[in-house]
């Protein structure tokens, strides 16, 4: 399957069965993890990489697509356990990951909290508390839009804002693969925009989806939904059409 491996992780969250799909990239020198799940996910990650006869301590780099809790929840624990792993993030995301800025989902929740119906407040309070409890961690290397990282045949950084302003996707030209992060998700075998009601900027999220049409993508991997089955370009065009008509 090209030069990437899917790390499907099944778990229960808020009483629902869920799956997330971090990605493993590997060449002769490096083993690179893309995103790392919720807090306390290290044992689940270990099991997922073990399926490929790989161990977490052999990972050399960890690329973060954005700072949402389900993508960076275990980042600090991983870095503490394996300090040699280099954490890589987009320049706009660094203040959120390092704790210098309040995370966007917490800002959103706080701004609407007073208007919520009473029965919703305990759930949202719990959500806010979980966001505040995420450990911060220093980023070792920042990346910029269009930068090509020299590993695994080249990894192009594609700035895809909207879900959050500093969201990135990764394009692997050697296998025409796009690691989408949350720029798109797969729901009922169709592409969609991730939680459009919570998108920081839905218009920008749609512009980011359109941007994907500039890339020759044969394989598309979503953090929520895994590997897309079908014609990627056609599915992206359909998604754009659905939101613009």
From TrEMBL:
Domain Metallo-beta-lactamase: 19-224
Keywords of this entry: Hydrolase
Reactions mediated catalytically: 3',5'-cyclic CMP + H2O = CMP + H(+); 3',5'-cyclic UMP + H2O = UMP + H(+)
Pfam annotation, one family: Lactamase_B
GO-annotated molecular function: hydrolase activity
InterPro entries: Metallo-B-lactamas, NDM-1-like, RibonucZ/Hydroxyglut_hydro
CDD domains: yflN-like_MBL-fold
Function (record text): Counteracts the endogenous Pycsar antiviral defense system. Phosphodiesterase that enables metal-dependent hydrolysis of host cyclic nucleotide Pycsar defense signals such as cCMP and cUMP.
Name of the protein: MBL fold metallo-hydrolase
């Amino acid at each position: 399957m090209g030069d990437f491996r899917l790390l499907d992780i099944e778990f229960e969250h808020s009483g629902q069965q869920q799956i997330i799909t971090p990605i493993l990239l590997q060449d002769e020198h490096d083993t690179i993890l893309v995103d790392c799940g919720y807090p306390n996910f290290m044992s689940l990650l270990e099991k997922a990489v073990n399926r490929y006869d790989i161990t977490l301590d052999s990972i050399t780099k960890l690329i973060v697509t954005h700072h949402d809790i389900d993508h960076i929840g275990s980042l600090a624990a991983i870095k503490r356990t394996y300090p040699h792993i280099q954490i890589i993030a987009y320049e706009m995301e660094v203040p959120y990951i390092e704790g210098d800025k309040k995370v966007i989902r917490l800002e959103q929740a706080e701004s609407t909290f007073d208007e919520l119906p009473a029965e919703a407040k305990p759930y949202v309070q719990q959500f806010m508390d979980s966001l505040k409890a995420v450990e911060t961690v220093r980023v070792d290397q920042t990346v910029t839009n269009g930068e090509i990282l020299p590993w695994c045949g080249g990894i192009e950084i594609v700035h895809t804002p909207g879900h959050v302003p500093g969201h990135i996707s990764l394009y692997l030209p050697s296998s025409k693969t796009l690691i989408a992060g949350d720029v798109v998700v797969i729901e009922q075998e169709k592409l969609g925009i991730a939680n459009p009601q919570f998108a920081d900027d839905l218009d920008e999220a749609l512009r980011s989806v359109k941007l994907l049409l500039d890339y020759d993508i044969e394989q598309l991997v979503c953090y929520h939904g895994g590997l897309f089955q079908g014609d990627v370009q056609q599915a992206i065009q359909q998604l754009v059409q659905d939101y613009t008509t």
